[in-house]
Design goal:
- Pfam families: LMWPc.
- The protein is an alpha/beta fold.
- The chain contains 5 helices and 4 strands.
- The protein has a 4-stranded parallel beta sheet with strand order 2-1-3-4.
Length: about 140
Amino acid sequence: MNRKVTRIYFLCYQNRCRSQMAEAFATYYGGEHLFAESAGLESSDIHPLTIEAMKEVGIDISNNVSKKLNMKSFMAANAIVKLCEQVTEQCPIVPFQIMNVDWNIQDPLAIEGCGIDEVRKARDEIRQKVIDLLKGMNIPIA
């Protein structure tokens, strides 16, 4: 039996923190029912605090790479999740048949004097939003 896999594309400005976390959580919780990708309007190295915060919850993203928006992945998605206002304003128009989600989560790395606590707060918010999204899309949670 051929099972349909749901595709979710997470977008933020630089693909160095928020969208990386969302992709990792979606992959972790969605398992074989989901294919998650992330990208940014620009690419930047994944921030060490992002890697550290995810390791704390047992998810290693140290080998992930930052990617720029890819229109083939964008158009193949069942859902586009925009994690920040900058992406919402500058993102290509999401076609009608693709679920369009705006989370507008503040970039913890943009906070002056950002430390691990700010990244943890964003991580925890993103984890809950990913779980809620998967449940809302009827994707079994692993």
